[in-house]
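<instruction>
Derive structure tokens from the sequence
<data>
Labelled lines for chain and fold:
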Amino acid sequence: MHIFYGKASLIDYLKSIKTVQSTIGFVPTMGALHQGHLALMQKSLLENENTVVSIFVNPTQFNNPEDLAKYPRTLEEDVKKLTALNPNIILYAPSVEDIYDGKPLSQSFDFDGLENQMEGKFRPGHFNGVGTIVKRLFEIVEPTNAYFGEKDFQQLQIVKKMVVKNHLQVNVIGCPIYRESNNLAMSSRNERLSTEERDEAAIIYKTLTAAKEKFAANSTAIISEWVQKLFNKNTRFTLEYFVIADEATLLPSTRKNKNKKYRAFIAVLVNNIRLIDTISLN
């Protein structure tokens, strides 16, 4: 398996294998790989001649130092999973120095307001960090196609916006959410949950599916109030937000329009661990 720790050697290698017809698929990750990540890679392997995976815990997208410090780092295990999936995967596992040249600072981006909703409200500067690292990785890898999971749907829309605004030649592809046996959305953060917390986190998806059932006959305000009351009774999980939003603009919706697509977004805290999820409503 080809593993690169520096961008210069990766760029040289990619130039050596590139042809006029060949395509590069790219899956950026922060490691602690799970089946959801591997599904993105499988799609890339099917659709491209070459697949690059990056593993990099990006400091500029963490507004909580404790979350950054505790984020799981399992490079050795990740390499085993990648090798088992396909030894032809090209892995880029850079240092902060290699990515940021000694200055781990975010650029400022204008995402046309997408950055001000949901995650943006609760994680100041988060999406500038996301935009910064994804733009740098795209410039290094120069992928034809890049694959992102829909669990981070707001991030997916932000990356698409960043690509358009910066005139980058990459096709951004959203892929379905992979779920655990109790329908908890797969996430590297799940590794920090206790067995009991992981089991009880099934409430997140149950809440989303119930909201979807209620959506046709109820207003967004009624559904949001129901969700808030549900979590007010729960002693283990704290609701950070529940929002029903226009899928294109991510603006919270007060009135439903039959010509628009809507999505419910949720973020909860358990033992200071943030879990997010989303579901299409119509």
